[in-house]
Design brief:
Elements: H1 2-29, E1 31-36, E2 44-46, E3 49-51, H2 53-65, E4 68-73, H3 76-85, E5 89-95, E6 105-111, E7 115-120, E8 139-142, H4 146-153, E9 161-164, H5 167-175, E10 181-184, H6 186-195, E11 203-210, E12 215-219, H7 225-241, H8 243-251
Parallel strand pairs: 1-4, 1-5, 8-9, 8-10
Antiparallel strand pairs: 2-3, 5-12, 6-12, 7-10, 7-11
Helix pairs in contact: 2-7, 5-6
Length: 260
């Protein structure tokens, strides 16, 4: 009888241990690691907190689905490298270009995110026409961004493409006349201009490199399927409820109007 009691006790303890072990593994599996760059109004850090439309959207999805979030904001090329090393990771916001299609699992879109060429209004002499022989122009673009390949496809020489680690650097160089044009997303560039004390109304779209690729959450293809399914479910619920459009209306407007 004593041996039977001991055996039962041992089995009970083993069950508790197994439950705790499996529960801990499950909790770890539901932690999502996010990698972004400084790209207002979509993603940025302010007072040590992750802010912006994409971050607020992630917060709402995590709250609905009971997910844990860990986030890092760093230069885009580094974010790409770090996300590749972390299976349960998401890279945001990511333009869904053909070259990237098979590299990630996609949730979105968050916004249309046209890729454009921008110049300063006072630089009226600058023209860009890919149908003609390109005139040498110094054009800024983010390192690792699809705008770099789009410039190449448009016939821009490699020597004329100046790649920077952060969008802020490109914007500051444009306003200092160290760049003739800037390739990327218009709205984040306008926010970066205002943040650095420049007039965002000076920015002007002079050519659309690619309309409507769309900005997405790009998941590592090795992500836990349950984690991806829960995130996607939360996103679709927010989109169908109208919350996503409300977030767009709140964040994706002219930076001069954002804090009125």
């Amino acid at each position: 009888m004593k041996n039977f009691a001991k055996a039962c006790k041992a089995c009970f303890l083993m069950l508790i241990w197994s439950s705790l072990t499996l529960g801990g593994a499950s909790a770890r599996a539901l932690e999502l690691v996010g990698f972004s760059e400084d790209l207002p109004p979509f993603a940025y850090v302010e007072n040590a907190e992750h802010r912006g439309m994409a971050n607020e959207l992630m917060d709402r999805i995590a709250q609905r689905q009971g997910l844990q979030l860990k986030r890092f904001n760093m230069p885009w090329a580094r974010s790409i490298r770090e996300a590749a090393l972390e299976p349960n990771s998401v890279l945001y916001i990511t333009v869904r270009s053909p070259e990237r299609e098979s590299q990630y699992l996609w949730v979105g879109p968050i916004d249309a995110c046209d890729i454009v060429l921008m110049k300063l209004r006072r630089r009226g002499e600058i023209k860009f026409d890919p149908q003609r022989t390109p005139v040498p122009l110094q054009i800024g673009a983010g390192r690792g961004a699809p705008s770099v390949q789009l410039l190449r496809d448009a016939g821009v020489a490699e020597a004329d493409i100046y790649q920077t680690s952060r969008s802020e650097i490109s914007v500051r160089m444009l306003y200092a006349d160290r760049l003739d044009l800037l390739a990327g997303l218009m709205l984040p560039s306008a926010f970066q201009a205002q943040r650095n004390g420049f007039d965002p109304a000076e920015l002007q779209v002079t050519h659309v490199l690619k309309p409507g690729y769309g900005c997405y959450f790009a998941f590592n293809p090795k992500v836990d399927p349950q984690l991806l399914a829960q995130f996607r479910k939360g996103f679709e619920e927010i989109r169908s409820s109208g919350e996503l459009q409300l977030l767009r209306d709140m964040y994706l407007r002219n930076p001069g109007q954002l804090h009125r």
